[in-house]
Amino acid sequence: MGIVHHSNHIRYFEEARLDFMHTIGCDAAEMEKDGIIIPNVDAYAKYAKPIRFADKVTVAVRLVKFNGATMRYEYVMRLPDGNTAATGYTTHCFVGKDFKPLSLKHKYPVYYERLRAHISE
Predict the structure, then answer these.
(1) Domain coordinates of the chain in residue numbers?
(2) Fewest CB atoms less than 10 Å from the CB: which of 50, 89, 115, 121?
(3) 8-116 sits in which CATH class?
């Protein structure tokens, strides 16, 4: 069809989220080394315009909800001409290596404060 498959939009969202987290000092790989796993519990994308294979899209990401146990990100994906290709969100929780829920506020206050400082509601 000459366009990017719809499932890739969620992957683009993930790359944007991982880059955002790295930028604010909450690198997902480092957090995992510290015993924090961040599963995705919800993902949604609304498609507005197709992305062609040669398009270089940008993804704006915002942390919109965070309580130390869960977080939600919103995304806007734009085409080179500035038009919106897609919007969406993902929700994540925090678990330990045993996959039991954990609260960053109590166990990892440094990560908690870094994320809390970047909420944009």
Answers:
(1) 8-116
(2) 121
(3) alpha beta
